[in-house]
Amino acid sequence: MNSHFLGRPAVTLTALGTTCGIAWAAGFRGYMVELAGPASTFDWWGTFGALIFPGAVAGGLLGWAEALRRTGGRQHWRWLALAPLAFAVAPMLLPGAVPALLTQGLGGGAIAVALMAVGGGYAVSRRGPLWSRLACGITSAALLAALALAGPGIGGPALALTEPRGAWVAVLAAAFVIVLALASSIPHGAVATTADSLVPLQSTRLARHGVSPRLGKDAS
């Protein structure tokens, strides 16, 4: 198992990210059910094509980004921070989705979630000018607050923040978005040096012979 992980880190991390993305999307569908109540319906395209599949895509891309980060990065690899936009694009592929967005605002929630994740991920990173990170952070926080407070307007008085169920739904929504934003910060992270990426492999091999790996300058 360890040799497989060390030999194919990109495959392993991409698969892990895909699994996490599917779990995130499936859980977020539960939040949507809480908002819609009995009116919530399931269908193959709307549930799997427009939510579960983009969750797998976004998670897989972010897992791949972590693999690239650990191996020194690649050219243009930081664009993978836009992976959550899959949640905004997929619903727009539904028949009539674009006109519904423009005339009724339907689908705007998916776009808002994607933007919160991308902006929040950049905001919590330590990369880029402070002013731009603050702007993204404030915007994402404002959208998140609006999402958390949207329960009563969509699901009725039962989802008011003064009600236990409403408070739980608000916490659930905020937690989902924050987790996705933290995952979206991966492509903004500092890349590992070649020496750093080899330490786990050296440790595994040398430990079999009872030898401790050399770190830092001693490893060169």
Spell the H/E element sequence: HHHHHHHHHH
Strand content: under 5%
Question: How many DSSP helices?
Answer: 10
State the domain count.
1
Low-pLDDT sequence parts: 1-7, 216-220
Which structural class do you get from the secondary structure elements?
mainly alpha
Any idea what the radius of gyration is? 21 Å
Please bin the fraction of helical residues: 55-70%
Molecular shape: globular
Total strands: 0
Strand count, sense and barrel status of the largest sheet are: none
The average pLDDT is 84
Separation, N- and C-terminal Cα atoms: 28 Å
Describe the protein in words.
The two termini are 28 Å apart. The chain is 68% helix and 0% strand. With 220 residues, the protein is an all-alpha fold. The protein has helices at 2-7, 9-36, 44-70, 86-89, 97-104, 108-124, 130-149, 151-155, 164-184, 194-207. It contains ten helices and no strands. The model is unreliable at 1-7 and 216-220 (pLDDT under 50). It has one domain (2-94, 104-191). It comes from Paenarthrobacter ilicis. Keywords: Membrane, Transmembrane, Transmembrane helix. This is Integral membrane protein.
Please outline what is shown here.
This protein is mainly α and 220 residues long. It is built from ten helices and no strands.
Layout of SSEs?
Layout: H1 2-7, H2 9-36, H3 44-70, H4 86-89, H5 97-104, H6 108-124, H7 130-149, H8 151-155, H9 164-184, H10 194-207
Helix pairs in contact: 2-3, 2-9, 6-7, 6-9, 7-9
